[in-house]
Amino acid sequence: LDGKQQEKVLTYESRELEIGEISFLQNVKQFLVLGLVHIFTGYDHILFVISLLFGALTIRHILSLVTAFTIAHSITLALATFDIVHLPSRFVESAIALSIIYVALINIFNKDSKHQPWLAFGFGLIHGFGFAGILSEMRLDPNHMAASLLSFNIGIEIGQLLIVSLAFPLILWIRKFKYKPIKWVIPSTSAAILAFGLVWFIQRAF
Fold first, then answer.
1. pTM (2 decimals)?
2. CA proximity to 80, closest of 120, 131, 38, 118
């Protein structure tokens, strides 16, 4: 309109577009919200992050894991969105399920294991391609792609920080209890996460 291009994310709840009404801030907001929705409805990503938290003992440690995971998935999210690197969706989704299975197995059979940042970084590269799936289907306007990508990624990070800030204190609280039934909460939760990972892998790989 008048030489200017605008973008609108159409959803089930928002199916109308008023031409000329979308400002830069509104465009940023809609992709930020899209990132938030994507992480909160991406149960596989949530379970992976929680599995990492089970292997973290201190705030400093969890910060190193989250930072490594964030840097890694931000790299591949950008590469995939700008169509620099492309991987088959079946491979990506199957690999994400395998990452959940791997970390859950460590949590079950090696309770004293301390997850390393390189593990979070390596699997974060795969999860980034998963995050990019929704953006690659949108055919974003090249003129707005950087802002849209950045806003979407910030939305993901905000959602991820909310998950960590809620889950990690609860995990630390559970670890403080010496009552034996409480001690089984984390291993049994890891077993449930492992089951979800196996189901997802079978569904996605075959």
1. 0.86
2. 131
